[in-house]
Amino acid sequence: MDENFWNTMGGKYPVNSFWAERFLIDPLDPSSGPGRDDVPSTVYQSPVAPKAEGPEKGVFFSVKGLEGAWIPYGRGHAACPSRHLAKRLILYTTGLLLAAFDIEIVTQQVVMDSPRFGLGVQRPKQPVKFRMKRKTSSSAH
């Protein structure tokens, strides 16, 4: 929750608000990514786009350089032994849902609740309304 570390896009996305693109890096946009550009490079280093051909060479997800600043599964001897599997399953499931459904968030502003933040848990203060519509089989691919 440190505003001095996290990228807020000049205050547009405060750390206590939901910003779905926080961990996406656009090689063409130097202001993208989770960390602030003015944080010393020993703390956070903005990752370089992976060498790839095709659609992967654009915007990409990364948590590189966030060790010790972002602790979603604990750390040290208490770190979750299945954290790598859990992360991959979350990304896989999200990909399947996005491939099969059009999802529109209807709630205008999502305010996050932080009483258990130190445990790696943060949830919206109010219900988040959304619409889901199954994509047609031709648009799902």
TrEMBL record:
Keywords: Heme, Iron, Metal-binding. Transmembrane segments: none annotated. It comes from the Eukaryota. InterPro entries: CYP450_sterol_14alpha_dmase (IPR050529), Cyt_P450_sf (IPR036396). Gene3D superfamilies: Cytochrome P450. Belongs to the cytochrome P450 family. This is Cytochrome P450. It comes from Xylaria grammica.
